[in-house]
Amino acid sequence: MAPYATETNKSQAKEDNVKEDIKTLDSTSQKLKIIYPYVITFSYWHLAGLYGLYLCFTSAKWPTILFGFLVYMLAELGVTAGAHRLWSHKSYKAKPPLQIILMIFNSMAFQNSVFTWVRDHRLHHKYSDTDADPHNAHRGFFYSHIGWLMTKKSEEVIKKGKTIDMSDIYSNPILRFQKKYAVPIFGTLCFVLPTVIPMYFWNETFVNSWHVNILRYLVNLHISFCVNSAAHKWGYKPYDKSLLPSQNILVSIGALGEGFHNFHHVFPWDYRTAELGNTKFNITASFIDFFSWVGWAYDLKKVSKDVVKSRAERTGDGTDLWGNK
Ligand SMILES: [Zn+2]
Ligand SMILES: [Zn+2]
């Protein structure tokens, strides 16, 4: 366990440092430049995914659909337990075997390399909902959901992105491997294997297998996107009512525990990204707990209940999460 007080002070000092910077950033000043090849790519994913949904109700075999659900769960954990809680926030430590598992799961989700994901995410936390935030929610739901991936990064995002400390990620051989062999790794784990396995093991057709997997990929994408859009728009703010990030239970269910977003932006180093110790909607926390039991995850960081409570009383919106009001 990390010392709570020290972590809290460190984070407070960091917050104070960037506050001045944030004041100078206008939240919607720069015009957006659309990247058309990305628009075409996303359009294809959506058309193919919709066709996959149609096939789920018509000709796809049920093991193909179940397999799609399994791939979705593993890929999602690669984002939530891997790219997010382990690599972006260092909220726990993982031994190499777990890091390899998470890199493989993460590649099944293909949300760019972990290098890019972590840089964008650290930037998002440091400059939340300003022009230096890659998915600034002040630009509207569509932009923070998916629009930011189809437009050129703002000058502020590029400029401030260079100030993010990425030394831990650059020095990680498992993540360097993922980046170096990005095309074969993402191609194989996100597209080829999930398509070929149903064809080989239960004689699924190529058309069914490909489109159901694209549907699975699309669901993974949209669930992650919802953390940036829906969880920055709808929900309670028990910890800091001045922030856009909110507690959104629906996002938590889909994103395996990532929707307790007001808590997460206030205490980003907590491996649970949630305060209640409730693992019902937090499969990612259970996954990390399991590997902690195995011995492959260690130094799990938690914020104490007292720190959480005093912060909630100081800056929260008054939502009662402890049932004692
Ligand atoms: Zn956020
Ligand atoms: Zn985060």
From TrEMBL:
The keyword Magnesium does not apply. The keyword Lipid biosynthesis applies. The chain crosses the membrane at residues 35-57, 64-87, 99-118, 181-202. CDD domains: Delta9-FADS-like. It is a multi-pass membrane protein. Its cofactor is Fe(2+). It comes from the Eukaryota. It is found in: Membrane. Pfam families: FA_desaturase. Keywords: Fatty acid biosynthesis, Fatty acid metabolism, Iron, Lipid biosynthesis, Lipid metabolism, Membrane, Metal-binding, Oxidoreductase, Transmembrane, Transmembrane helix. Residues 61-268 form the Fatty acid desaturase domain. The histidine box domains are involved in binding the catalytic metal ions. Belongs to the fatty acid desaturase type 1 family. This is Fatty acid desaturase domain-containing protein.
